[in-house]
Amino acid sequence: MIEMGIDVWQGCMHSNNVPELLQKYSGKITFMGEIDNKFVDFEGWTESDCEKAAVGAIERVGTNKGFIPCITQGGPGSVYKGTYQALTDAIDRYNLSHFGGTREELEASRLPARIMF
Questions:
Q1: 97-106, long-range: CB within 8 Å, 24+ apart, which pairs?
Q2: pTM for the complete prediction?
Q3: Which of 34, 46, 72, 91 is the most buried (most CB within 10 A)?
C-alpha cells in the first residue's frame, strides 16, 4: 500500500496488530480502525461497550501520530442505531480528558458526520 501511494489504511482490524504495524511503518502510512464492529455493533450494545472498546484500542495502540481510532467498517454508521455516535463520543471523551480542550473546540474542528445507517 505504501509503494502504491496510499496514505491511510482505513479498516485495519484488531487482528492486524496495529501496534506492530505502527512500529514498522510509522511516518509512512496512517492506520485507521482497530475497533472491530463485533466489539460494539451488536444487538443489546451499551455505551459502556463503546467506552471499553474505544479506550482499549487507544491504550493498546497508543496515542502516536499515525493512528486514528474508529470502527473498522469503513464509514460513519452502524448496523444498530446509535452505536457509531456512542463510539465517537467515547473517543471524544478520551481525547478531551487526555489532551485538553473543550467539546466546542472539538466540534468546531471537524466536518459534520453524515451517519449512513
A1: 98/63, 99/63
A2: 0.88
A3: 34
